[in-house]
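Appendix C reproduces, verbatim, an entry submitted by the partner laboratory led by Prof. M.T., so that reviewers can inspect both the input and the predicted structure.
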Amino acid sequence: MRFYSFPGKLVLVGTTALLLASSPDAFGQKGFFRPGYVVLATAPADTLRGEVDLNRAGHTQAQVQFRSGQQAARTYGLRELLAAGDDSGRRYRRCEVPQGENKVVAMLQVLVAGQASLYQDPTGKLPATFYLDKPAQAPMPLKREQFVQVLQTSFADCPTVNTTVAYMGRYIYEASELRRYVVNYNRCRYPSAPVQSAYIAPTKNQVLTKDFVRWGVQVGVARVSIYYPYSARETSMTASLTPALGLLTTLPLSNHFGFSTGFTYTNFRSDNTFVLPVAGTTYMRTYHYQTKGALVRWPLAMRVTLRRPETVWRPYLQGGVQMSYLLGSQLRMQTSYSDPSTPLPGMNFTESMDGLGRGLLGEAGVLLRYRKALLGAGVRAESTNGFPVRGRSYLNDFNQLTFALTYYR
């Protein structure tokens, strides 16, 4: 299978540029900041308000970046903070949790804040995913294999709680359900005390729903390159620029990986001439090809999206396979010779092209978040072989380079 030469280099260069641009330093951006606060652990335990980036607190390091006004961002470590939060409702609190026979200090995400609080370990490194905190008690781990017993024991001081917080006494080990249980317990046991139910970040085992699928429409321009019969596929001939349309869908598997598929449509028309020597003679044979038709493609690609989901723009790369089908395609070929006295006969025939072709695709682009929609711009290279010329044993190879804009909902 033959792929692009110059266009292939173009895609490679574009991909490299996107990878470099995906570094936050490429645009002088060192984090995604929101209005928020930090509560310092050192005396006096001041609350500083400004802008915070909670990405590190929610991943592998218990760190929070904070900036105020025109001051440069400062990173606060675990020992320097009591709490931090932003205007999205995401909050973190420093807690001591049991780990074996010892206790360790950790930055936990607050799911419920009240007399009874619920926390989640955002790093996945602690013994339990969730922790329950009650007055005058250290946070208790809620492990999957024993969380029901812990909840029932902890909720025993409210006579009706086990029937009001769970469906017929059945508890579900998920952040949204655990949060509901603790909120209802607070309302039952402490009806006059305020309760805050906070933001819940998506977890790795969260079940995908139809709300995660994005559908899109695509418009762009494409250039088709064709390897004709008799040309030994040495050099491709290019058709004129043509509109490209598509209906696409993406299915994310995580914050950075997903599937992309759909259908694209491109028509093409070309008029190409080239000259080749006739083997064993001094004659030169001129080939004149006229080709027209349309291509319907079905791509199936794995997409890798760089940068974090909440950022405004995100570069992406994707690669995979595709099937193509020719519609109403026709090939007309004429041959002639520079020397009229040439004894070899010329050829003049018209054949239809049809059938399925298979191939590969690669794409690089950028996604721009606009309210609930995504706007995309990308360059896609596709290589397909081979479409049969009806009535003959030759196959035509088609390559295509497309620049397109996509609107996802």
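Residues 33-197 form one domain. Additional entries are available on request from the coordinating office.
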